[in-house]
From TrEMBL:
Residues 4-296 form the FAD/NAD(P)-binding domain. InterPro entries: FAD-bd_OxRdtase, FAD/NAD-binding_dom, Rubredoxin_C. The keyword Flavoprotein applies. Belongs to the FAD-dependent oxidoreductase family. Pfam families: Pyr_redox_2, Rubredoxin_C. The keyword Zinc does not apply. Its cofactor is FAD. This is FAD-dependent oxidoreductase.
Length: 406
């Protein structure tokens, strides 16, 4: 059995940041990185561009073999982690081998929710193999339907050729229901429909029938014929490994403010970790790239004994859909009592700011232009009071304010 100071399971945002942080502070610590995909790290955010033919496959990769070699990391790619023994500090792999560790980081990510019945023309999008399959499946398609209006389905539809007929089946009353309030979602829905997308809200797919085309039977009784179906209806944090090891698990793997699990030698970060939300104080699985990077950094520092506390994660999602940049930062809930709106879809500069009872910024939705999203992120992090509409207008007040918080 090989023995390492630190073993990392997961080769995306949290795992990569942990590697960088470890090497920034120590060149001596031995590190192994395990991942079931047999390739270097890649960006899932870019896969819709690849599927839509807007970027080459090689542009998806954010690390190469030289990165791991230069970092002095032993890589075990194409290897699934089967079980963890917290008492013996052992990680067992699918090939029957085991790794010993002093500290273990579970950066396991999440999976697409399963969908049945299956079909060769039905696919999820979570891994590189899914992207390869979808790129081939959608290339000849004249009509594509997506189930679920989240950060998987919508970007894929938006990067398809405008000549493709596009349908979006949404179980809730709006798109991006986990990201946006109803008003902001309505602004985007208007743009989607203007871009040629047919929305089917408060609908579910009850049956998929095979034929020359796929026939989708909807809960309302309507039928929809399509060439391909992309299922993007939610994700599930990968918690099985932790659960079977006896770690505390709820929606995700429960972690404290050090990103430590219920076992002192085991840490978790990224889409599988459930920690404190900075704004609400409640535990949540945030599921965004920046949170994964932040948690990977904190976990790595604590595995090295450098003792760092994490103030909590924040929603911070930025995407491009149908030619519009969209950012959702902090708490963007219908339940927030006071909001300030400026701009419109027509001006391609829409701002909605969410304020608490002390007039502090707790969230922001930006549609059209999102270059100043970092300013709003810092306002939420610093619990700053709303400085007034001049900031939203992007005039001299914006420049003055950015100098003040820099």
């Amino acid at each position: 059995m090989q023995q390492f100071d630190i073993v990392i399971v997961g080769n995306s945002a949290a795992g990569l940041q942990a590697v960088r942080t470890i090497r920034r502070h120590s060149s001596r610590v031995s590190v192994a990185l395990v991942d079931r995909e047999a390739c270097p790290a890649y960006s899932r955010v870019l896969t819709p561009y690849f599927i839509g033919g807007k970027t080459a496959r090689q542009n998806l990769f954010i690390a190469d073999d030289a990165f791991y070699r230069d970092m002095g990391v032993t890589t075990l790619f194409g290897q699934a982690a089967l079980s963890v023994d917290p008492d013996r500090r052992e990680l067992r792999l699918a090939d029957g081998s085991s790794l010993g560790f002093n500290a273990l980081l579970l950066a396991l990510g999440s999976e697409a929710r399963p969908f049945k019945p299956g079909s060769e023309r039905v696919s999820t999008l979570r891994h590189l193999a899914d992207a390869d399959r979808l790129a081939a499946l959608l290339q000849p398609a004249r009509c594509v339907t997506a189930l679920g209006a989240g950060l998987v389905s919508v970007p894929v539809l938006s990067h398809l050729s405008p000549e493709v007929e596009r349908h979006l089946v949404v179980g809730s009353d709006r798109i991006f229901s986990r990201l946006l309030d109803a008003e902001s979602a309505a602004v985007l829905e208007e743009h989607f429909q203007a871009s040629g997308v047919t929305l089917h809200k408060r609908e579910e797919i009850s049956e998929v029938l095979e034929g020359e085309r796929l026939r989708l039977s909807l809960a309302s009784g309507k039928n929809l014929d399509t060439d391909a179906l992309l299922v993007g209806k939610g994700v599930l944090p990968n918690t099985l490994l932790a659960r079977e090891a006896g770690l505390a698990v709820s929606d995700g793997i429960l972690v404290d403010d050090c990103c430590r699990t219920s076992c002192p030698a085991i840490f978790a970060a990224g889409d599988a970790a459930q920690g404190r939300d900075y704004v609400t104080g409640e535990t949540t699985v945030q599921g965004n790239w920046i949170t994964a990077v932040e948690q990977g950094e904190v976990a790595a520092r604590n595995m090295l004994g450098l003792n760092q506390l994490y103030e909590g994660s924040m929603k911070n999602n930025i995407t491009e859909v149908f030619g519009l940049d969209v950012a959702a930062i902090g708490c963007c809930s219908d339940a927030v009592g006071r909001t300030v709106v400026h701009g419109s879809l027509a001006s391609r500069r829409y701002r909605k700011i969410f304020l608490d009872e002390k007039e502090r910024v707790v969230g922001a939705v930006l549609i059209g232009e999102t270059n100043d999203s970092g300013v709003y992120y810092q306002m939420v992090r610093a619990r700053l009071p709303f400085p007034g509409r001049r900031l939203m207008q992007g005039d001299a007040g914006y420049a003055a304010f950015t100098r003040r918080i820099a």
